[in-house]
Amino acid sequence: MIKVSENVLKELKKIGDFNASMCFSCGTCTALCPVGLPILPREIFRYALLGAEDRLRDESDPIFSCLLCRMCEENCPEGVKISNNIRLLRIYLNKKVFKP
Predict the structure, then answer these.
(1) Residue 1 included in any domain
(2) Domain containing 48: what range?
(3) Sign of the alpha-carbon torsion through 58, 63, 65, 71
(4) CB of 62 closer than 8 Å to CB of 39
């Protein structure tokens, strides 16, 4: 069962400019990732937009493996600030999910 929280998106927007709703899941960002890990921003952003806290926790390895190099952003047809969104997700996870 997936734990859904209405507060995930609200909290992310409080932290900063979370613009993941602009993503239309084209996959361009995934092909450009130099890390070589299965980092799928479109899936991670969908979990955040839906408030799927458990899924975000499950995806914490890819979220924290991202180099924030912005290669993915350079070719995003919608101008999604992918690295900024990943950075905001890291802050959210550290504050809300991984709290002691």
Answers:
(1) no
(2) 6-97
(3) positive
(4) yes
List CB contacts of 5: < 8 A, sequence separation 6 or more: 51, 53
Provide the number of structural domains found in the chain.
1
Q: Is 68 inside any structural domain?
A: yes
In a domain, 45, yes or no: yes
Q: Provide the 10 A C-beta neighbour count for residue 16.
A: 14
Going by C-alpha positions, the residue among 47, 43, 38, 85 that lies closest to residue 65 is 38
Classify residue 44 by its DSSP letter. Answer: H
pLDDT of residue 39: 74
The Cα 71–Cα 25 span in angstroms is 16
Per run of 10 residues, the mean pLDDT along the chain (length 100 residues) is 83 93 90 79 93 91 92 92 96 82
- Which pLDDT score is estimated for 3? 75
pLDDT of residue 89: 96
Question: For residue 98, what is the DSSP state?
Answer: S
Residue 83: predicted pLDDT: 95
